[in-house]
Amino acid sequence: MMMNLTFIREMVKRFREDEVSRLSAELAYFFLLSLFPFLIFLFTLMAYLPIEHEDVLSVVRQYAPKEAMDLIEANIHYVMNHQNGKLLSFGIIGAVWSASNGIDAIVRAFNRAYDVQESRSFIAARGVSILLTFGMMLVIVVALVLPVFGKTIGLFLSSMLGISGIFLMIWSAFRWIVSFLILFGVFTSLYYFAPNKQLHYKQVMAGAMFATIGWIVTSLAFSYYVESFSSYTSMYGSLGGIIILMIWFYLSGMIIVLGGELNAVLECQREGRKRER
User: Fold this and answer.
1) Distance from C-alpha of 125 to C-alpha of 116, rounded to nearest angstrom
2) Per-residue pLDDT at 143
3) What string of DSSP letters covers 190-223?
4) I need a surface site. Which of 38, 60, 175, 272 has the fewest CB within 10 A?
5) Helix (H) or strand (E) holding 7
6) What is the CB neighbour count within 10 angstroms for residue 163?
7) What is the largest CA-CA distance in the chain?
8) What is the pLDDT of residue 186?
C-alpha cells in the first residue's frame, strides 16, 4: 500500500516538474498539423488498393468523437473530390515533416523523464524521429487495413462454412484484439527507441500497456462525453469540431507522455534511487 502511495506521489510530482500539461499541448499542435497531410497521403494511396474510404473511416470512427469525425470526413471528401497527381507526394512530405516534429517533442519529453541529455547530433536525432514516424505511419496503415480485410475475410469464411452469428461475433472480437496488439506494439517501440538511453523491452512494457489501455479508454470516454453532455458546437459554432479534435489530441498526447513518465518512475524504483531535482 505504501509502495502504491509513493508511486502515485512521484507521478503527481513529475506531472508538475516535467510540465506534462504543456508538453501535451505541444503534441496536440503537431498532431493537428500532421493529421490532414497524413490523411491525404493515406486516402490517395487507398486509390491503388481494393479498399473503400468509408471502410477505413469506420475504423477511425470507433474512437474519434463525432464532431471531430465530421470535420475529418468533410475535409477528406473535399480532398478526394479535388485530388491530383501531386497529392501523394505532398501528403507524404507534409505528414512526415509535421509528424517528425511531434516525435521529436516526444523524444525530448522522454529524455526529460529519464533525466538524460540529448547527446545525439541534430541529424541523428532527427533521423530517429523520421524513422519512428515512418514506422508509425506504416503500422497505422496496417492497423486501418487489417480490420477492413478482416471483415471481408470473416464474411467470406462465414458464407463458406455456413455459419454467421457466433462466428462473426468471434471474428469481430478478434479484430479488436489485433488492433489492441498493434497499438501496444507502436507504444512499445516508441518508448524503447525514442529516449536517448539504453533500455530493455521489458522496461518499457508497463508504460506501453498503460498508454494502450489509457488511450482506448480515454478516447471512448471522451467521445461518449462529447456526444452525451457537451455542447462545444453551440458554444464555438463552426470551430466546435476543431476544438474537440484538439482536446482529443491533447488527451492522447498526455497519455503518451505519462506512459514515458511511468516507465521512468519504475526504473528509479528498481534501481532504488530517488530523482534529484
Assistant:
1) 14
2) 61
3) HHHHSSSS---HHHHHHHHHHHHHHHHHHHHHHH
4) 272
5) helix 2-17
6) 12
7) 65
8) 85
